[in-house]
Amino acid sequence: MKRLLKCVVLAVGSGLLTTAAVSADLPQKGYAAPRLVAAAYDWSGVYMGGELGYGWGKATSNAYGLSASDNTDGAVYGLFLGAQRHFTSGLVLGAQVTYDWASMNGSGGISGLPKGVSSSSNAKLQNMLLAEGKLGYAMNTWLPYATIGGACAESHVNGSIGTVAASSNNFDKCGWTLGAGIDYAIWQNVVIGLKYNFVDLGTSNPSFPIGAGVGLSIPVTQNSINIVKASISAKW
Fold first, then answer.
1. How far apart are the C-alpha atoms of 151 and 159, rounded to whole Å?
2. Cα 229 to Cα 26: distance, rounded to the nearest angstrom
3. Could you write out the DSSP letters of every residue in 169-213?
4. What tens digit of pLDDT does each residue of 13-58 get?
């Protein structure tokens, strides 16, 4: 009995030593440090910045059997202020006000005159105010978005027929705008962007004083303004 018990103890001990040896030879799994997950960028906040771009459009007029058409283009630059809220779904809702100075000029001719009568026309868009609502979808540090809102601008038009010249007083026109753009956060509080706006200012009726006489009221339609601009802003 004692001899049998001794054999069992020796067998068990030998098995344990063999298992320990084999385990020591197997590759050991190293310690894995916890992975750090970067927090998604938060687009909520108030922002203010500047923009620079290029605009092109068309101003037309029809009155007294005559018509004029001026293609305008030039630099656009300004400032903007906005606020937005970033929801957990990824949607971003906001509002923005933009004031741009513009040097969009264009010239053309006046049709409907007798043959041989010289004529010229010139239109200038001087500044513009946009108030827009904003809807976007955040993709971490990227924010594509669309805008819709109202637009008002100050313009000036002049023309001449033969030796008679007429120039309008500066006049305001208001209409609507649609836009689309994309922003990219290069740092936590610094954002760069690219945006396109289409602006329709409708029709106005500025007065064109001629000499000391009564000014003529001539309708001017400016309904195809396109603006592409780059921007940089600070967000907090």
1. 26
2. 63
3. PPEEEEEEEEEEEEEEEEETTEEEEEEEEEEE--EE--EE--TTS
4. 455 444 444 455 555 555 555 555 457 899 999 999 999 999 999 8
Q: How far apart are CA 75 and CA 126, in angstroms?
A: 10
Residue range 45-235 forms a domain whose CATH class is mainly beta
Distance of alpha carbon 169 from alpha carbon 215, whole angstroms: 10
Number of H helices, E strands in the chain: 1, 14
The domain spans of the chain are 45-235
pTM of the model: 0.79
Q: Which of 170, 229, 219 is nearest to 198 (CA)?
A: 229
Helix (H, G, I), strand (E, B) or coil at 94: strand
